[in-house]
């Protein structure tokens, strides 16, 4: 299983009146992690968009454990939790620089045609992506 890692400096603009990272910013950081994972696999999401394919989020799950604050560093770990050729679920763990767990979560995506939002198979359109995702995803109990 491939786990990608992105480091983020918490900026003042990302905090709320309480001085902690505003909850929605973790979703932005998850996107940064997801993009990094795709690049670590040797691909660019922008190429999908050029080809008329989008991968919208269809589900989000986030659990907040400990707050991050301005001036701290966030370490975003991202992996492919589940993939079936059509839908991909990415897993996330965001930790403080000292290792303390801040956030866990997942996002589920499906590839669609940009002109009509009809689902398309990554397996059929991009066999190289499909193979990379199959190789990088979290092993299932059957796969152990």
From TrEMBL:
Residue ranges crossing the lipid bilayer per the database entry: none
EC number: 3.1.2.-
Enzyme class: hydrolase
Keywords: Hydrolase
Hydrolase as UniProt keyword: yes
Domain of life: Bacteria
GO molecular function, one term: hydrolase activity
Family note: Belongs to the 4-hydroxybenzoyl-CoA thioesterase family.
Protein name (record): Acyl-CoA thioesterase
Organism: Lederbergia graminis
